[in-house]
Design the sequence.
């Protein structure tokens, strides 16, 4: 008998039954194919304006910094200012995202693509943001190399306010809706809440463990049409 | 690690005399529990979420075969491979075979309790591979060649000086006179060293907090980002998990995540929560070429439907450990198992056999705090009691204890006689102890009076005082 059959058989035996009846199986399959949200904390509710201010508050609480911009076109300037203010040089590794590719980056030395570990700074586009905990959803793929989220010391994430929602469930619903098939999950979905940290030495909180030491969020509060 | 759970009493005695350990433990008691409380206060829905978290786990366990099969087919459909391991031996072999097939030399590891259970590092070392723990706490204890003392804070028993000592001993290429006084210095050094290992590794091994049946995703939560570097950079990603970690949907997983970090460290959410689904696709600029999930049973399927069934709800948050007065006094190593504290005292006998861990169900004051703080409401004291009962019925109870308890039972079943004799005894003891108010040593209670004095009774039993003051039975 294969280990698989042995383990599944053992589970059924312990539960005191054989394989599930077809009806039960269908019922369970439906629970999954038509997923229902459980209890969602109220705090993420409210108007979009309230969600934005909750997001900013929660993100700052976990040591992220936030700049609020009026348009996507302002991203290169805001990124350059952040690097300058923090004395982080002018080199920036960018995610090959169409929104970023069409911007004017002349003030910085930018390159596009995944990181091999020698980039000090990176900038990526968030898929979404969640007000409830000030968390960002980053999806892997053509436009989002995962290495950019973990290897560079300083991580800048652009979040369009229209992609900011109250809770995680809304992000999952959007992923399902946009993909429209069972394989809607990217290879990696990274939820990021603040810069990397550890408390493994005498329970002292230190930022910048293995991932980024700094996390800066550029929150763009327009539809990006202007300017 | 080797199970050393039959030495609890001796280990605990040593732990109580270890000043460094005691200083670390003192910090624990005032750390995580207060942060958890603050997080709960901020979330009015917390109790409701706990109920749902419990129900989701219960539902999944009742249909575990279904959800595991569904998870398996989703992993395969998204380009991954699933391996089933009945026991530790089978699990290790699978991991080694995957490493061998790609000619791996170095393996980086994110923190995984299933990895600890399999003692995967020792095994891979035996086979000539170089496994490197990347969670800072795990890295420190790997250098010191010792097991974790806590399931989420593996090096919590250590002081800064221990870490410095381990780094100086191991990182011999670095200048001897470098300054490592501040915790920050130690972190910077570990970060630089491990960074090279991440990039050089051929295989990355992580654990999984959850497996999602709906999508075939495995989920890890970390604060350091080490788990993500471990699974993103090498060619091969191996996930070690166990059968009870599966949940039906992303929504169910979200509910459990809402109680996990809050119960553990009091964080609203861990810094990184990562869902991994399949191997690198055609358009992916990075990520592993192979995605393997090893599902371990190792005795868990036997727990289903039996006394310790509910223990399979455990999401390894460590709240029960952080709040346990026994753990807070003796630390994790005293338990002699990778799963310490209340959850470990239930789980270790279930996984390794009661005869090898007979002290553990007794290493509890039965104060009930563990159940009170458990995010999935596991009735831990009830299960500890059932282990004690089992021990009494078929197991290894020392003769003296058995005789003593039988003798006690005889008395308590005869309350009238018991109260009368107890009344005499109190009067005699009050008379004998009236001079000092306590006894330095006390006949058959030598073990008790070895470390403290026995206070002398004042002459009356509780029952006598109770009726004198007008108390009555309810």
Sequence:
């Amino acid at each position: 008998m294969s280990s698989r059959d042995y383990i599944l058989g053992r589970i059924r035996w312990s539960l005191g039954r054989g394989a599930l009846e077809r009806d039960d199986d269908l019922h369970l399959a439906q629970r999954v194919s038509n997923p229902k949200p459980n209890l969602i904390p109220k705090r993420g509710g409210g108007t979009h304006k309230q969600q934005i201010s909750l997001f900013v508050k929660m993100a700052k609480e976990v040591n992220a910094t936030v700049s609020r911009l009026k348009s996507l076109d302002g991203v290169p300037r805001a990124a350059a200012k952040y690097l300058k203010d923090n004395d982080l040089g002018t080199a920036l590794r960018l995610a090959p995202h169409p929104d970023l590719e069409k911007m004017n980056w002349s003030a910085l030395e930018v390159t596009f693509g995944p990181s091999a570990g020698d980039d000090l700074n990176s900038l990526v586009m968030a898929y979404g943001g969640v007000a409830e905990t000030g968390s960002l959803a980053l999806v892997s793929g053509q436009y989002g190399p995962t290495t950019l989220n973990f290897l560079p010391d300083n991580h800048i994430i652009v979040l369009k306010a229209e992609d900011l929602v109250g809770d995680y469930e809304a992000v999952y619903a959007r992923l399902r809706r946009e993909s429209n098939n069972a394989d809607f999950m990217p290879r990696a979905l990274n939820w990021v809440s603040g810069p990397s940290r550890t408390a493994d030495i005498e329970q002292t909180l230190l930022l910048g463990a293995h991932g980024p030491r700094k996390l800066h969020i550029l929150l763009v509060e327009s539809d990006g049409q202007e300017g | 690690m080797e199970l050393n759970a039959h030495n609890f009493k001796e280990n605990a005695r040593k732990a109580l005399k270890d000043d460094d350990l005691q200083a670390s433990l003192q910090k624990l008691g005032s750390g995580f529990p207060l942060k958890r409380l603050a997080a709960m206060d901020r979330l009015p829905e917390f109790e409701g979420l706990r109920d749902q978290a419990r129900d989701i786990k219960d539902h999944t366990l009742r249909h575990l075969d279904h959800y595991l099969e569904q998870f398996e087919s989703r992993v395969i459909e998204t380009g991954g491979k699933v391996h089933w391991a009945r026991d530790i031996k089978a699990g290790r072999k699978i991991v080694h075979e995957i490493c061998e097939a790609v000619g791996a030399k170095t393996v980086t590891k994110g923190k995984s309790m299933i990895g600890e259970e399999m003692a995967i590092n020792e095994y891979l070392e035996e086979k000539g591979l170089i496994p490197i723990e990347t969670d800072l706490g795990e890295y420190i204890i790997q250098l010191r060649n010792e097991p974790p003392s806590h399931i989420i804070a593996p090096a919590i028993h250590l002081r800064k000086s221990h870490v410095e000592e381990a780094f100086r001993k191991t990182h011999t290429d670095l200048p001897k006179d470098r300054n490592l006084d501040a915790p920050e210095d130690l972190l910077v050094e570990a970060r630089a060293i491990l960074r090279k290992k991440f990039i050089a590794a051929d295989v990355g091994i992580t654990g999984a907090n959850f497996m999602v049946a709906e999508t075939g995703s495995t989920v890890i939560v970390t604060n350091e980002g080490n788990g993500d570097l471990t699974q993103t950079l090498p060619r091969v990603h191996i996930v070690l998990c166990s059968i009870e970690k599966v949940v039906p949907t992303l929504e169910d997983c979200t509910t459990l995540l809402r109680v996990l970090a809050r119960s553990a460290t009091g964080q609203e959410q861990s810094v990184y929560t990562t869902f991994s689904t399949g191997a690198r696709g055609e358009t992916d600029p990075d990520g592993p070429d192979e995605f393997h999930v090893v599902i371990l049973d190792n005795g868990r399927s036997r727990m289903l439907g039996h006394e310790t069934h509910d223990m399979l709800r455990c999401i390894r948050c460590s709240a029960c450990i952080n709040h346990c007065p026994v753990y807070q006094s003796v630390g994790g190593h005293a338990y002699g198992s990778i799963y310490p504290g209340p959850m470990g005292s239930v789980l270790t006998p279930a996984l390794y056999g009661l005869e090898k861990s007979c002290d553990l169900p007794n290493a509890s004051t039965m104060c009930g705090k563990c159940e009170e703080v458990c995010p999935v409401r596991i009735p831990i004291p009830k299960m500890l009691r059932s282990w004690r009962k089992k021990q009494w019925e078929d197991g290894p109870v020392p003769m003296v204890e058995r005789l003593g308890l039988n003798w006690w039972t005889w008395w308590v079943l005869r309350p009238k006689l018991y109260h009368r004799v107890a009344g005499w005894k109190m009067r005699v003891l009050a008379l004998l102890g009236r001079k000092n108010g306590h006894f330095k040593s006390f006949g058959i209670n030598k073990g008790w009076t070895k470390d403290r004095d026995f206070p002398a009774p004042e002459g009356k039993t509780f029952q006598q005082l109770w009726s004198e003051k007008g108390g009555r039975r309810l």
